[in-house]
Each structure stands twice: as C-alpha cells, then as structure tokens.
Fold:
Amino acid sequence: MSSPRSLFQTVVDKNTPQRTREDAIDGLAEAGATTQLRIIVVTSGLSGRLRRRALDALGRCRATDELDTLADERSITQPLRKQAAELL
Structure:
C-alpha cells in the first residue's frame, strides 16, 4: 500500500488520470488519513467530484472532527458544507 503522502500527491497531480486520483482518495480513507482528506476538500483547484469523494471518504472514516470543521468552513461552497453536515 502506498503512503498517505504518496496518495495525496497522486490526488493533487493534475496529470494523473481521474480514476487513479479517485482510487488514491479511497486509499487515503483506508489508511485513515483524515487530515489529507480534509485538505483535499478545501483545495479549490481540485474538481468538485474529487472534493465530494474526499468528503464521502471522511464519512466512511467517521472523522467527525474534520466533518464538523468543514461544515462551518466558509472557504468552501455551501453544497460541500451541507454534505459535511449531513455526514456527521
């Protein structure tokens, strides 16, 4: 299994195929890398699809602290904040 750092770099690499980036998010969830997943959600340069997938991964990890923070995070869009709140 790849390290959380390597998986995170895969997610943010725009030259990596979408499916590979999505698989890396799933790998981060399996590793319990909630900090990296939270960073993906707040990174505005990433597609909404990847950001939503990272939110779902936080829900699978039961990362309530991160989800609570994201539900109140004004730097992300309202739909992402709402999704974070629903996953709590």
Remarks:
- Helices lie at 4-12, 18-31, 34-42, 48-60, 64-71, 78-87.
- The mean pLDDT is 96.
- Residues 29 and 60 are 7 Å apart (CA to CA).
